[in-house]
């Protein structure tokens, strides 16, 4: 199964072509950026497709991170993935950003829970905690930092994501500290592909996962009356 995976949810634009039959990455490209995903994505896709030596007709499925993350970045990746799926008639599978961040640590050892955390700014984080066997201990949500730390400080735990260090710094006194703090800020597109390969497209649609409202909102006061 050949998967083209895309991640534009956070502060990177990343693409990979991964062959699940042999669990081998044929090509990968990643550029760290806070803005400019729309301009960077298609050239990166073209780069990895050329390097992989494959054509779009060879791709069996497209995978894309659906959030939480940047509103603008998410729209860029989702629009591209949907377009590729529409053009090729192949499935498009949405993968949670938090699940993709937690996956590498769970693959190493799934007996110890992993709390994936993304810095949501202003003293908040996006959080999900996954336990043994993939059981969800804390569902994906936006939380105040101190509340999040209390929610996951319930025993041995590992932290992953851009909010991991913030979470560790807010750890409740007297509680056992995290066993590991992996502050990798953005998902690895290879893990996005791996998660997609075991996902049911019907249950993992490419729809944005917004855990809070956008910071920028339409003006609701002082409007000029229309005639």
Describe this structure in words.
- With 227 residues, this protein is an alpha/beta fold.
- It has 2 domains: 2-96 and 186-203, 2-Layer Sandwich (Nucleotidyltransferase, domain 5), CATH 3.30.420; 98-182, ATPase, nucleotide binding domain (Nucleotidyltransferase, domain 5), CATH 3.30.420.
- The chain is built from 6 helices and 10 strands; from the N terminus they run βββαβαβαβββαβαβα.
- The protein has helices spanning 37-52, 71-88, 97-108, 145-152, 164-169, 189-197, and strands spanning 2-7, 12-19, 24-32, 61-67, 92-96, 114-121, 124-130, 136-144, 158-160, 180-182.
- A 5-stranded mixed sheet has the order 3-2-1-4-5, sandwiched between helices. It has a 5-stranded mixed sheet with strand order 8-7-6-9-10.
- α1 crosses α2 (71-88) and α3 packs across α6 (189-197).
- The radius of gyration is 18 Å and the shape is globular.
- It starts with a strand and ends in a 30-residue tail after the last helix.
| Structural class estimated from helices and strands | alpha/beta
Uncertain regions spanning at least 5 consecutive residues? 215-227
Give the number of helices.
6
Q: What is the H/E order?
A: EEEHEHEHEEEHEHEH
Helix content: 25-40%
Can you give the mean pLDDT?
92
InterPro entries: ATPase_NBD, Gcp-like_dom, T6A_TsaB
GO molecular function: transferase activity
Organism: Ancylobacter pratisalsi
GO biological process, one term: tRNA threonylcarbamoyladenosine modification
């Amino acid at each position: 199964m050949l998967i083209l995976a895309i991640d534009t949810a956070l502060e990177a634009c990343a693409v990979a072509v991964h062959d699940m039959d042999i669990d081998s990455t044929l090509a990968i490209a990643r550029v760290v950026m806070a803005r400019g995903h729309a301009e960077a994505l298609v050239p990166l896709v073209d780069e990895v497709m050329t390097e992989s030596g494959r054509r779009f007709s060879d791709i069996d499925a497209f995978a894309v991170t659906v959030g939480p993350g940047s509103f603008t970045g998410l729209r860029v990746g989702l629009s591209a993935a949907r377009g590729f799926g529409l053009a090729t008639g192949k499935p498009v599978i949405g993968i949670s950003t938090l699940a993709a961040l937690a996956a590498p640590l769970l693959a190493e050892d799934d007996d110890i829970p992993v709390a994936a955390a993304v810095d949501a700014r202003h003293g908040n984080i996006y959080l999900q905690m996954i336990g043994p066997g993939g059981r969800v201990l804390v569902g994906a949500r936006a939380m105040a930092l101190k509340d999040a730390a209390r929610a996951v400080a319930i025993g041995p735990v590992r932290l992953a994501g851009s909010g991991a260090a913030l979470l560790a710094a807010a750890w409740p006194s007297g509680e056992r500290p995290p066993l590991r703090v992996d502050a990798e800020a953005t998902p690895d597109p290879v893990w996005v592909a791996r998660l997609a390969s075991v996902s049911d497209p019907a249950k993992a649609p490419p729809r944005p996962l917004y855990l809070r409202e956008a910071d920028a909102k339409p003006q609701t006061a002082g409007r000029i009356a229309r005639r």
